[in-house]
């Protein structure tokens, strides 16, 4: 049996031995009472890295995003986000269903950025009783559905200024914010200090088994703590999870540059396979989205199934677009082996087409 090369997501990464040792040895307490010293240390550390006052460990990025929507929006409010936002596509409509706020979409550019001009045009007139109040603008960095594209500190500030001028808060879905920071070679805080709150995932490329941290002002985190309790996210001796998070922040951030180099290597190889199209220069971090020619090769879902048989796991992005994500368990050698297998699959399907 040939070993599977799993490029579906960086969420497939396992905790390191160092994380497992730290988890076993973690000092813990009841976090609903605020008494878990390891969680408190992680939250403080995360807030510092984000340039924010306080942090809150949550079960997932989805839970963080939901808590942000609950904390900033009332029923009947409106939140603005990009048309490709994870919060819009992949969170089971939680922000709308549970926060009761509707979503107003603005365009994302190829790198996943939304423009200050589009946000300014979408903000509602607060004096008009016919329209919802714009209370939140959501950013995403890096951008999942836009091939891991990054927003710079400047891009971020421009949107924040427009949102604040309109009286709206800015939530940053920074599930992969450290990928953005490493790609731009700036401290993560440069990308997060100007927003009103930010969430990042420990459980993706940082290799932790579970968890996200939501960061913001003391006041915001106070509210978020109550919303987290309401949605069932008040955990107890979760310091065993936070211990892995502390190891991740110490040792898993700089190595993201390797994932980015492997993603570029992967994109360059895919670009050489007839029947596949990829914007090589658009690969800024660890996500590679590429198009499969339906006429030449076949339907995207059939390609995914055929690749699985040939030992390469990939995920579906949209229509004929597939997604590959590099991570800690993928070496440059694995990239080359994956490319060779993909080429074989595509040639076989093209021959049969
Ligand atoms: C993965 C992801 C989330 C959700 O995180 P989970 O921990 O899987 O719930 C939110 N936003 C973005 C951009 C993501 O990539």
From TrEMBL:
Domain Aromatic amino acid beta-eliminating lyase/threonine aldolase: 6-290
Sample GO molecular function, one term: L-allo-threonine aldolase activity
Keyword Lyase: yes
Keywords recorded for this protein, A-Z: Lyase, Pyridoxal phosphate
Entry-linked InterPro entries: ArAA_b-elim_lyase/Thr_aldolase, Low_specificity_L-TA-like, PyrdxlP-dep_Trfase, PyrdxlP-dep_Trfase_major, PyrdxlP-dep_Trfase_small
SUPFAM superfamilies linked: PLP-dependent transferases
Cofactor list: pyridoxal 5'-phosphate
Residues carrying N6-(pyridoxal phosphate)lysine: 204
GO terms for biological process, alphabetical: glycine biosynthetic process; L-threonine catabolic process
Annotated GO CC locations: cytosol
Membership in a protein family: Belongs to the threonine aldolase family.
UniProt-recorded name of the protein: L-allo-threonine aldolase
Source species of the chain: Geodia barretti
């Amino acid at each position: 049996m040939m070993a599977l090369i799993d490029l579906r997501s960086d969420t497939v990464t396992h905790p390191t031995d160092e994380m497992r040792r730290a988890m076993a040895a973690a000092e813990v307490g009841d976090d609903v009472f605020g008494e878990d010293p390891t969680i408190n240390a992680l939250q403080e550390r995360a807030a510092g890295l984000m340039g924010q006052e306080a942090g809150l460990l949550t079960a997932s990025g989805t839970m963080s995003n939901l808590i942000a929507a609950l904390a900033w929006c009332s029923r009947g409010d409106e939140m603005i986000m990009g048309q490709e936002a994870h919060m819009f596509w992949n969170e089971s409509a939680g922000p709308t269903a549970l926060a009761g706020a509707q979503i107003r979409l603005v365009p994302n550019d190829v790198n996943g950025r939304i423009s200050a001009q589009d946000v300014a045009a979408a903000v509602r007139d607060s004096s008009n009783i016919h329209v919802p109040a714009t209370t939140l603008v959501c950013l995403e960095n890096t951008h999942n559905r836009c091939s891991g594209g990054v927003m710079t500190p400047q891009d971020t500030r421009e949107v924040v200024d427009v949102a604040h001028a309109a009286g709206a808060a800015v939530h940053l879905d920074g599930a992969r914010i450290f990928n953005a920071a490493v790609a731009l070679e700036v401290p993560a805080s440069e990308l997060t200090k100007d927003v009103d709150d930010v969430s990042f995932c420990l459980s993706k490329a940082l290799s932790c088994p579970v968890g996200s941290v939501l960061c913001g002002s003391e006041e915001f985190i106070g509210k978020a703590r109550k919303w987290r309790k309401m949605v069932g996210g008040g955990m107890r001796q979760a310091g065993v999870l936070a211990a892995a998070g502390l190891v991740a922040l110490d040792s898993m951030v700089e190595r993201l540059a390797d994932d980015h180099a492997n993603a570029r290597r992967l994109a360059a190889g895919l670009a050489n396979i007839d029947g596949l199209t990829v914007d090589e220069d658009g690969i800024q971090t660890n996500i590679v989205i590429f198009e499969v020619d339906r006429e030449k090769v076949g339907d995207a879902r059939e390609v995914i199934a055929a690749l699985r048989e040939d030992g390469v796991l990939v995920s579906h992005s949209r229509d004929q677009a597939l997604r590959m994500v590099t991570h800690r368990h993928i070496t440059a050698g694995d990239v080359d082996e994956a490319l060779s297998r993909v080429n074989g699959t595509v040639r076989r399907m093209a021959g049969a087409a």
